[in-house]
Structures are given as C-alpha cells and as structure tokens.
Write a structure and sequence with these properties.
The protein is built from 8 helices and 10 strands. By secondary structure, it is of the alpha+beta class. It is elongated.
Length: about 240
C-alpha cells in the first residue's frame, strides 16, 4: 500500500481511528493493495502513521464490521472479494468462468516439473506404473485476488514440448492447442475437503488450520483419451462449486 504517503490530521474533529479507516478504504478502492488483498499488520500501520496499535485496530474492526475486510486466523486482514460461482461441466475453463461473472481472470505458473507419476495420477491418465508426467502448478486469481492453486498432470511422452509451449503462453488451453489438442472435455470431477499443507496455506494466504475445497478431475481429448489429471485447491470462502449437465 501507499499508506506511508497519507497523513493524520490531528487538528481535525474526526477521531484518528476514523481517519485511518477512511485512508485504508481509499487505498482499497484505488487498488493500491498487494495482489493478495492483504492489509499490512496493525503494528506496521501504526508505525507508518505515528499512532498506537489500539487506534489502528479500531479502524480495522470498523472495516470488518462494514464487510469490507475479513480476518483470517493466523494470516491477517484481507479485503473481501466476490464469491466465484464455479460451474463444473463437460467444458470447465477457468478463464471463461471468471470472465462470465464480470471479473478478470489471471494467474501465473509457479513451477513445472517432470517426474514419475504417482499411482493416482498414472491410473487417472491410463499410464503404466513408473511412466513420467509433467506437472504444471499455477495460481488462479479473480480480479487480482488468489482463489485457488491448480496442479495439472500431463503424460510426458505425449506432451514433450509442453514446457516450451507454456513459455509462449500462460494459458494451458492455448499450449495444448499448439500441441495438437484443439479441444478437450471433462470426463469426471470429484470434490472433497482437507487441510492445506504449510506451503499450500502460504500460497493461498490463509491459515493451515482452515480447510480448502479440493477438486480432482480428468480431461480427455476428442478421441476420449485422457490428456490431463488435475487437482485444484480452492479457498472455501471464495468459490462456490456448482455442477451442471
């Protein structure tokens, strides 16, 4: 945030905590927050503004009571984003789903690794034990705020050039299209919940004690051959899964 450029008017009849509330609200509305929507800790805000932490906490409580922010246990205060209505169908596409709700989809690839597939992955992809897969992990964002972490597993033998294709585009659909898969379809999806690992919680900007929604899916090409096994961890308070035919 650019909160350090704002000042408190100590001659104003408006209480200091209300001035801080208004400063924070202006920063939130201007989009000056970090892309994870997290507010700086009260101690840091207090130091920047030259006030005590109790006064800052009053301002933060006022924002939360107004429904502007929320406190996530062990993680801090975050701007409340819109809930994404996420339909699961035969053609589930993250970008299309987010765009259809008037939000901007974005994200980045966190890592790409080739390794032997786990028993779950090779079974889902119709591979043999020990066959190698390419795992692509990416962050999923709506209007700049993270809503999930997705891991996509592809048969390495079929998609040798996948990593090169992803260097040209961050879109997995576009990369697959460049490799000859013009279209693909969702064969199955399962949904469960679990606690995230410490790394997953850090990526999702939430407490490791807070459950996440987990989807596992298999996508197939036009010839019904499995091309991708995916697992996505969604923030449970930011995504509503909906199944449709």
């Amino acid at each position: 945030m650019t909160i350090s450029q704002r000042t408190i008017d100590r001659t104003s009849p408006l209480p200091i905590w209300q001035q801080i509330r208004d400063i924070l609200l202006a920063e939130i509305r201007s989009g000056a927050l970090a892309d994870d929507g997290k507010l700086p800790p009260a101690s840091r805000l207090a130091a920047r503004l030259g006030v005590n932490r109790h006064t800052v906490r009053q301002a933060l409580m006022a924002l939360e009571e107004a429904g502007v922010t929320e406190t996530r246990q062990g993680a801090g205060s975050f701007v409340v984003g819109r809930v994404v209505d996420y339909p699961i169908s035969s053609k589930t596409r993250f970008s299309d789903i987010v765009l259809a709700q008037g939000m901007a989809p974005s994200g980045e690839i966190l890592r790409t690794v080739e390794r032997p597939g786990s028993n779950e992955v090779v079974k889902a992809l119709g591979l043999k034990r020990g066959d190698r897969v390419i795992m692509v992990e990416r962050a999923c964002r709506a209007d700049g705020y993270i809503i999930g972490i997705a891991r996509h597993y592809f048969p390495a033998a079929r998609f040798r050039e996948l990593r090169d294709a992803l260097k040209q585009t961050a879109s997995i659909s576009d990369a697959l299209n460049a490799l000859g898969v013009a279209n693909y379809f969702r064969r199955s999806t399962t949904v469960s919940t679990r606690l995230p690992s410490s790394r997953e919680a850090r990526l999702l900007r939430q407490s490791a004690a807070r459950p996440v929604l987990v989807t596992k899916s298999v996508n197939v090409d036009a010839h019904d051959r499995p091309i991708e096994f995916g697992t996505t961890l969604f923030l449970a308070d930011r995504v509503q899964l909906r199944f449709s035919n």
